[in-house]
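Lecture notes, continued. The same structure-token format from the folding unit now serves as the input rather than the output. Read the line below as a description of shape only.
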């Protein structure tokens, strides 16, 4: 059973930070020992997948993740090593140290399965790449921002400021949090390039997987740009604090627990693209309600990109289900059991240890992204991939199938309980992003 230890003063905001996923038969058996003790973690999920327990501020000892010559394959043992860093060494950590949470299972896909992705190159070329938009047909941030070379620039900025004056603080917190998440794009490109069999081997690889990753990144790059510039021009937010948060976040990276495994990686990205589609769609809707139609357009355009990207990543997983239903089912269950962590879960502004939890609570309260959305996305993916009706699975994969199908209602129930606990936390919190003004959390 994978559990995420909570260090926050509240029980967490999002489902991803507050619940322990119900266990499945495909669970792994890991012990995690502190202070550089070794821990053995054996797989039981058809061998291709493994998982480790994440625990608070335990950090990996680089280079000692697994024994040489012992790849994680079918039924093999994966060695996981974690260490708890001392308070003293935290002081030397550029990122404040306390937000680091890393699991260290690596290369969990069996070598023969890596070949699957080589064999899918033709498919990726014909099916995946057409889902990208040619640059000349893409919107650019400048299309929706005041034109700095124009004589009317200052008037346009004035208008923008008048429109955005009606945006409440809790909305700004959500928009800033979303923008910071987008701005940590280097981390997400890195994550995609950790995946065995699909990574961009050179940085300019002609493989369709490499082409996809670079063009996807290039499309995504516009999201942070447009939101950052817009927020800057509003004059409503503390840009220096926001910039610090982005620097901290990129420095911290993220821990999606995808184990260099493209099966897990593409389940993760399918989930995340939908999560961002929902979140940006909601900030679009709310911007309109608060009288800023241009901001609504911007957020809507970002949401539409996310939707297109979700379509691409879910197509990859759909294809994997087609050619390897057992392995894909086990991967889906494994990712869901470990929970899908939010990409910005290591967010820090140099001041607030609870920044991500508080941001999550505001997103939850305002309806920008809620615990219910988490369960809904999971249910959506179960339906999208026709998981419930899949036939001819091995008994392990059947157990995994039953597990994922049963999860959404179970998570909704757990979420209700977690919400009740959250109510006992602080009612308000201040955000450095908006000059330390207080915002209701609950
Ligand atoms: Fe994005
Ligand atoms: Fe995205």
């Amino acid at each position: 059973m994978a559990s995420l230890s909570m260090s926050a003063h509240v029980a967490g905001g999002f489902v991803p930070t507050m619940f322990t996923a119900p266990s499945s038969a495909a669970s792994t058996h890991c012990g995690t020992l502190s202070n550089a003790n070794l821990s053995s973690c054996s797989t039981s999920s058809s061998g291709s997948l493994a998982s480790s327990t994440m625990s608070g501020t335990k950090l990996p000892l680089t280079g000692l993740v697994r024994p040489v010559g012992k790849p994680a394959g079918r039924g093999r043992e994966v060695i996981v090593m974690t260490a708890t860093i001392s308070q003293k060494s935290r002081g030397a950590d550029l990122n404040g140290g306390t937000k680091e949470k890393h699991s260290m299972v690596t290369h969990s896909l069996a070598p023969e399965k890596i070949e699957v992705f080589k064999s899918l190159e033709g498919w990726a070329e014909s099916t995946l790449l057409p889902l990208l938009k040619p640059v000349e047909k893409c919107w650019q941030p400048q299309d929706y921002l005041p034109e700095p070379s124009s004589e009317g620039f200052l008037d346009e900025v004035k208008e923008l400021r008048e429109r955005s004056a009606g945006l409440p603080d809790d909305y700004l917190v959500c928009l800033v949090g979303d923008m910071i998440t987008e701005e940590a794009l280097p981390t997400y490109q890195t994550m995609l390039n950790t995946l065995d069999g699909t990574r961009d081997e050179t940085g300019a690889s002609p493989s369709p997987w490499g082409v996809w990753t670079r063009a996807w990144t290039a499309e995504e790059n516009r999201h942070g740009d447009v939101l950052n510039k817009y927020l800057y021009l509003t004059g409503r937010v503390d840009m220096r604090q926001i910039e610090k948060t982005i620097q901290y976040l990129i420095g911290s990276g993220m821990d999606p627990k995808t184990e260099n495994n493209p099966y897990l990686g593409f389940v993760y990205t399918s989930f995340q693209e939908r999560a961002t589609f929902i979140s940006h769609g909601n900030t679009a809707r709310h911007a309109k309600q608060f009288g800023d139609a241009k901001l609504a357009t911007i957020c809507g355009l970002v949401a539409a990109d996310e939707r297109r990207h979700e379509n691409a990543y879910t197509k990859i997983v759909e294809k994997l289900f087609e050619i390897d239903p057992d392995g894909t089912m086990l991967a889906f269950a494994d990712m869901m059991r470990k929970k899908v962590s939010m990409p910005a879960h290591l967010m820090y502004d140099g001041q607030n240890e609870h920044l991500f939890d508080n941001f999550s609570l505001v997103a939850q309260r305002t309806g920008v992204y809620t615990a219910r959305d988490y369960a809904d996305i999971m249910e959506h993916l179960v339906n999208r991939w026709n998981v419930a009706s899949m036939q001819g699975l091995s008994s392990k994969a059947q157990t995994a199938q039953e597990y994922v199908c049963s999860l959404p209602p179970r998570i909704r129930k757990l979420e209700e309980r977690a919400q009740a606990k959250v109510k006992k936390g602080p009612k308000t919190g201040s955000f450095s992003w908006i000059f330390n003004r207080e915002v209701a959390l609950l």
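Point for the exam: Residues 220, 273, 276, 306, 309 surround fe (ii) ion (ligand 2) (CB under 6 Å).
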